[in-house]
Amino acid sequence: MRWALVKVSLAVTTMVVVAFAVPLGLVIREMARDRAFSNAEREAAAVAPALSITTDRDQLERVVASAGSDAGMAVHLPAGDGQEALELGRRRAAEADIAAVRKLGRASTTGVTGGSTLLQPVALSTGRIAVVEVYVPESDVTNGVGTAWAVLAAVGVALILGSVAVADRLGVRMVRPAQRLVEGAHDLGEGRLGARVPEEGPTELRLAAVAFNSMADQVVQLLANERELAADLSHRLRTPLTVLRLNTASLGEGPAADQTRTAVEQLEREVDTIIRTAREAKPQTAAAGPGAGCDAAEVVRERMAFWSALAEDEGRKWRVAGVDRPVRIPVARADLAAALDALLGNVFRHTAEGTAFAVDVHNGEDAVIVLVSDAGPGIPDPEAAMARGRGSGSDGSTGLGLDIVRRLAESTGGDVRIGSSVLGGTEVRIWIQLDGRAPASGGHRQMRRRRPRRIAAVYNRSRSR
Prior knowledge:
Layout: H1 2-53, H2 57-66, E1 73-77, E2 86-88, H3 95-104, E3 108-112, E4 115-123, E5 129-137, H4 138-141, H5 145-189, H6 203-236, H7 238-248, H8 255-279, E6 294-295, H9 296-313, E7 318-321, E8 328-329, H10 333-350, E9 357-363, E10 367-374, H11 382-389, H12 400-410, E11 415-420, E12 426-433, H13 443-449, H14 453-464
Parallel strand pairs: 7-9
Antiparallel strand pairs: 1-2, 1-5, 3-4, 4-5, 6-8, 9-10, 10-12, 11-12
Helix pairs in contact: 1-2, 1-5, 5-6, 6-8, 7-8, 9-10, 10-12, 11-12
């Protein structure tokens, strides 16, 4: 916007300067020409009285010399009454031009080498017509024109520069509030809920700043209400959880009882985590720092040990690979465990008993792939399933499990893909970027453009086995 205003001002001022300076320069040149020929007419008029009295050569030469223009003036007397034609001074005009002026009886100008001449007819006492020729050099015609044009050009340039400076200052006054509005929107989008914009500048931008600040206040209020609602709902779950925990004490011993007690304890921990997170004053938007994260191999082994008991009860064959050595990822342990539980829970929920499943971990230089696959019927429309995972629940599914997995992957700059597994069913691929740089927008699209070749090759070989 700032440069647009400067360009508009530059164009308008330049057109105005040209529209006025060019005609004014032409007028100045014509004025200089008129001044030079007016001086020539005065010199010719100074000789005219002497010609009306005498035609004596000596007397005319003294008159021409007294006029001070003997070098640029000539007098042409016609022949008659026994007298020969007489010419005083240097003739520059053509004979035809002199004859034409004598015949017409009015003054005329004609161009000659180095300038112009003024031919002024004068009536003699004998009735004949003499012609006074006054030479006007080109330097007299253009005297002062160059200086005047230079002054006009300097004034025009000063006007243009002044208009550009004024437009630039006005542009800064308009652009600075707009830049602050952009910065405030960017800060708010990154989770800095305290971002506000000064309500200053032109009326339109000031109103936009007022609207932005009002929107930011509403966002903060809505988030606060949402946190309070989540904390309240989570707190209400404590009562039935307490009942469940007390009831598990009467289940006795055995794998099913231990599994139930473990599930209730985990549910209590998750509810406590939700309550603590909801009560925090600020959202957690910062990326994990150096040293943060967990060992993906350890988490996979732990969760597979948990789900293996249920798999044995349902007669499911299962396999886990790639967890024989540590695999560090920039993801919290609880988040990865929640994502794995969501995907494995989907396997048990949406496939028949006896359906095999597997979890594979592939470690690369700058990314880790976690594959959860099964031998079930598969997902007919993976895109619709991913859409439900982005909050557009349909077909009786909330998509909460896929949403947990998606947010975990995108928090590291990775993505989630659904495809066909080598077991014949569904395969969910979680791509976790190790550098921990979350994309500004469209994380999965950026990851496709910069997929590491080495880990992609490992992933492709695992699918071919």
